[in-house]
């Protein structure tokens, strides 16, 4: 059998499982809220064109309105000023959108402190246990935050001092952006930066360093608790929007599973 035939056979037998990491899109999907005077993205809206009625007796379809950065989505380099000369979504090579998943679990820490930061030490500890980061990998930060994504207030978690959500420190963002094996960085929160990152130097360092170094971001992921720390393969499928700074994406992982009797 060829490698691809093996994959098909393993999917059929259950030796490989597909884990959907994409949050459903609806009018309740939380979106980033920037303070005045900054402009905000559109929320998801769906308008019926026809539904087996006079406007279309044998078919149903709808128009949708949403921002590029709505729900589970990819950040392309041109989303940020440091990457403005870089790739738009349609220019990202497909090979960059499939790669090993590296899962860093800070769920216990985030439950105790929503402002917890991912540090280089966490990544170095992962390497000490699992070996060097694999080439073209996506580093995924598991925080348990996806449990909140049906409640916009809890998900954005903002007060008079701003949002309180986990994310990478300045040092960690630079570490990820400069590591030759890292392709992208994914989170369960609304953005790839920590809620407090507007006050960091530089501000929003995940955007600053990653997108400025031809790395990519993924946000609003779910089901990271179903992935192993290493060994899964991530598949990212954004819309190839010409000139797009980002795109809603279907993201899933291939995970080896134990089969009874195997």
Automatic annotation (TrEMBL):
InterPro entries: KFase/CYL (IPR007325), KFase_sf (IPR037175). It comes from Deinococcus ruber. Pfam families: Cyclase (PF04199). GO terms for molecular function: arylformamidase activity. This is Cyclase. It comes from the Bacteria. GO terms for biological process: L-tryptophan catabolic process to kynurenine.
């Amino acid at each position: 059998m060829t490698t691809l035939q093996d994959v098909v056979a393993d999917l059929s037998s259950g030796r490989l499982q597909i884990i959907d990491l994409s949050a459903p899109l609806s009018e309740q999907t939380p979106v980033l809220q920037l303070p005045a005077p900054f402009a905000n993205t559109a929320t998801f809206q769906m308008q019926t064109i026809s539904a087996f009625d006079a406007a279309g007796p044998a078919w149903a379809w709808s128009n949708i309105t949403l921002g590029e950065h709505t729900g589970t989505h990819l950040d392309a380099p041109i989303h940020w000023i440091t990457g403005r000369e870089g790739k738009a979504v349609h220019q990202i090579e497909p090979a960059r959108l499939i790669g090993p998943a590296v899962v860093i679990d800070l769920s216990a820490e985030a439950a105790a402190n929503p402002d917890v930061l991912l540090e280089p030490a966490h990544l170095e500890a992962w390497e000490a246990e699992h070996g060097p980061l694999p080439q073209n990998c996506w580093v995924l930060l598991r925080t348990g935050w996806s449990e909140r994504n049906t409640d916009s207030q809890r998900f954005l978690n903002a007060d008079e001092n701003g949002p309180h959500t986990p994310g990478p420190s300045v040092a960690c963002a630079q570490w990820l952006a400069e590591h030759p094996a890292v392709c992208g960085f994914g989170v369960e929160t609304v953005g790839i930066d920590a809620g407090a990152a507007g006050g960091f130097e530089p501000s929003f360092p995940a955007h600053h360093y990653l997108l400025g170094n031809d790395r990519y971001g993924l946000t609003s992921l779910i089901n990271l608790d179903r992935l192993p720390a290493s060994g899964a393969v991530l598949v990212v499928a954004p819309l190839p929007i010409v000139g797009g700074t980002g795109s809603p994406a279907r993201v899933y992982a291939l995970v080896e599973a134990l089969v009874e009797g195997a």
